[in-house]
From TrEMBL:
<dbReference type="GO" id="GO:0006950">
    <property type="term" value="P:response to stress"/>
</dbReference>
<dbReference type="InterPro" id="IPR036388">
    <property type="entry name" value="WH-like_DNA-bd_sf"/>
</dbReference>
<dbReference type="InterPro" id="IPR039422">
    <property type="entry name" value="MarR/SlyA-like"/>
</dbReference>
<dbReference type="InterPro" id="IPR000835">
    <property type="entry name" value="HTH_MarR-typ"/>
</dbReference>
<dbReference type="InterPro" id="IPR036390">
    <property type="entry name" value="WH_DNA-bd_sf"/>
</dbReference>
<feature type="region of interest" description="Disordered">
    <location>
        <begin position="138"/>
        <end position="166"/>
    </location>
</feature>
<dbReference type="GO" id="GO:0003700">
    <property type="term" value="F:DNA-binding transcription factor activity"/>
</dbReference>
<dbReference type="Pfam" id="PF01047">
    <property type="entry name" value="MarR"/>
</dbReference>
<feature type="domain" description="HTH marR-type">
    <location>
        <begin position="30"/>
        <end position="129"/>
    </location>
</feature>
<protein>
    <submittedName>
        <fullName>MarR family transcriptional regulator</fullName>
    </submittedName>
</protein>
């Protein structure tokens, strides 16, 4: 016999999923409106802007994003055509650097991202509620990371859960 969620657990889970979808949609819309960037472009640019010398090896970028090489390669090709990034190859090393255009678009998008996230948090959560949600999320991510670390092999396409500060 299968174990089922209680009605309260099922309801909570559906609300968490819906909230996640709504928040992601609001933030993505703001980023797109402010800088004409997709969420994938924004995440790639975030990694590059935060990196030393604003560049990373392609395999380092894939690891940071939790993406497979094929997905990253296709994304970088699109971004290179939009002049958001440059790619250089030296032997077997593929380096990715953010361009001036990429930095400018990232800064516009990042400001919109911050404003959207703060608006979502301030409008709907008290400080105590936000702190409780943050603790709960951090505990869940830490438990998932510990479980992944204990698992001998994990498919390369399965991203690690990471807590991020925004």
């Amino acid at each position: 016999m299968a174990v089922e969620l209680t009605s309260g657990e099922a309801s909570t889970w559906r609300l968490i999923q819906r909230l996640s979808d709504l928040a992601t949609g609001v933030v993505e819309l703001q980023i797109r409106s402010a800088a004409d960037l997709s969420s994938a472009e924004f995440e790639v640019l975030r990694c590059l802007v935060d990196a030393p010398d604003r560049q990373l090896r392609q395999n380092e970028l894939a690891a940071l994003l939790g993406w497979d090489k094929s997905r990253l390669s296709h994304q970088l090709t699109r971004m290179q055509h939009r002049e958001l990034i440059d790619r250089q190859k030296s032997g077997r090393v593929h380096a990715v650097a953010v361009t001036r255009t990429g930095v400018q678009k990232f800064e516009l998008a990042d400001n919109a991202h911050v404003a959207a996230v703060r608006s979502l948090l301030r409008e709907h959560l008290s400080v105590a509620e936000r702190e409780a949600l943050e603790r709960t999320a951090a505990q869940a991510v830490a438990a998932a990371d510990a479980e992944e670390d204990a698992t001998p092999s994990r498919p390369a396409s399965t991203p690690r859960l990471r807590a991020r500060t925004t």
